[in-house]
Amino acid sequence: MANSTATTDGADGTAAQYNAVRLDALQTYIYLEKLGSIAAAGNGLANTIVPENATIKRLRIKCESGSGVIRIKCGATTIKGSMTIDSTGSTTTSFDATSLTAGDFLILDITSATNLVGVHVTAVAERT
Fold first, then answer.
1. Quick one: which of 2, 69, 85, 107 has the fewest CB in 10 Å?
2. pLDDT tens for the 128 residues of the chain, in order
3. 81, 93 Cβ separation under 8 angstroms
């Protein structure tokens, strides 16, 4: 399905385009980043506040160089227990839990790091 960028200004949208615009309005993107060199594993290396209740749909991850294994949590709940991260990037739609609660922290833990530099995570969620 195309997103709302597939619509043309001033033209009537198709049903599919209208539904795509509605989907865009329901999605929220939450970003976690740990910049610079990461010499060792650690918990809570990056976090941000979840803006509203949502259901996680996708995680996109990538690092600038090196490799490692990360964990994503919402508060004390593990969203994804183990994801290998490297510079080619990856996406997952498989989770240990999917519920994000407004006001909780979305937390990035790094469980192993090999010459790891610049971790970037995008959580795509649907507002509930």
1. 2
2. 445 556 566 666 666 665 555 555 678 899 999 999 998 999 999 999 999 999 999 999 999 999 999 999 999 999 999 999 999 999 999 999 999 999 999 999 999 999 999 999 999 999 88
3. no
